[in-house]
Here is the input.
Amino acid sequence: MLWNDEFETLPREAIEALQLKRLQHTLERVCATVPFYKKRFSEAGITPGDVRSLDDLRRLPFTLKQDMRDNYPYGLFAVPLDQIVRIHASSGTTGKPTVVGYTKRDIDNWAELMARSFAAAGTTRGDVIHNAYGYGLFTGGLGAHYGAERLGASVIPMSGGNTQKQMMIMQDFGSSVITCTPSYSLYLAEALKESGVDPNALKLRVGILGAEPWSEEIRAEIERNLGIKAIDIYGLSEIMGPGVAIECIEAQHGLHIWEDHFIPEIIDPDTEEVLPDGEHGELVITTITKEGIPLIRYRTRDITRIIAEPCICGRTHRRLERMSGRSDDMLIIRGVNVFPSQIESVLFSIDGIEPHYQLIVDREGTLDTLEVQVEVNEKTFSDEIKKLQELSQKISRAIKDLLGITCKVRLVEPKTIARSEGKAQRVIDRRQQ
Amino acid sequence: MKVEQISIFIENKSGRLADVTQALGDSDINIRALSLADTSDFGILRLIVDKSNLAEKTLKERGFTVNKTEVVAVEVPDRPAGMASILKILDSGDVNVEYMYAFVERCGGNAVIIFRFDDPEAAIKVLTKNGVHVLEGERVYNM
Here is the structure.
């Protein structure tokens, strides 16, 4: 269902004309108000006036997460603080957090784009939206909250954690939509099952899941275990927060990026060359309506490709394929590039395997080792050693066949791999320790 | 003629075996026979207990992975070549033994051996036809 009929179905030429106009305006503004950009542009020998077409965008320098850290906390803001009405920050797993500020209009646009996203996911004002994204510095909670209110739905500001309470509220309040991470939705399904609640007896029908990369196999698992439609949503605090792109419920294939507010590009992360539509590479986003902290060619590190083909839902905004990982969580094991999501896909292709797994990367001498820990369950467990060894061998053979790396599979007791109530920690890399 | 055996998946780390036996003890379950098969990473504990349904429930509640299988308890003459005679019968009947282990108790003057066959029905048929005494489950649980 469309939220904003006019803008969501704008013809391509109109989108591109709007993008160019907004891009030029944004460039003028950052050049005048953000010393960082003024300096960068002059170093690159380019002025906003040189950008006469969308193709000229590639002549501009990139913005990196490091640039945000270097200008911590407010150095990249394009307006004085008295116009900033909200400040968020990323969790900052390494070093200082990255700080973002929103003007009143930024908050308004964000609510609009989140409302569009909710509508694309098939939710309406009649829904009870159980928002289990964390409220606080993290953009997930408040971002989804404002969008749900804009949609006119009844929003329950649950925030993360306290699963027992989540389950009680979900049953008693009749939550019909849940917003959380995919790994938390799996955790919740498990917790419901343990307390004897049949998820099909709940009103829950849609999950809007994001903030970490996941796979089609995980989607199938979530949809089966919770009896819902699982919709992939994409966003990052640097660009806005959740609602930058979302799948439509009609296709559930590719995430429409709201192109009247963002310009996506795909680049080769090594050569930094812009790649044509359809090719896999790193997603780079330029914000063209943001006032608080506009970012020019921000390198997201997320790996995807642009799907330019028209979508059955009627939206004209191009789609991003489901993120297949990040250019910086890519593991290099004995010279082979491996994404945890690839190993996940292999595990799910094997009948009976639990969705909980962990990868331990270590080094013995000069040789990298990969250990894949998989939980045993009643389906895979046998009283015969050889059956379990066959299972381990089957997994390591499948990984070898698909990814070309040798790994050791360790079967572990159920529920021994840490369940996270936020982002799942799938990889433990001991090589850097 | 078959005996219920419960198997438990145990990771190779200290205290896990104690956790299982403690759980059974707490529920007043008596272990009649046991065998532990191990690899470098994990082990499988196989048990015959006096109350296998309760044991299964108790262990599952404590988060263990448990499965139930049917095994066959056979009386073996407690003398040289007693075991060999049984295995010979099985071999000639073309019955494959997956694994086996000995029972703690004796049954009269005989020893008791637990067998896991891939085809227990066929095994029982071969054994009884050759005059080997196969014990009833109830008998084994209450020995």
Observations:
- The longest helix of chain B spans residues 16-26.
- The helical segments of chain B are 16-26, 52-61, 82-92, 120-129, 137-141.
- Residues 26 and 58 of chain B are 9 Å apart (CA to CA).
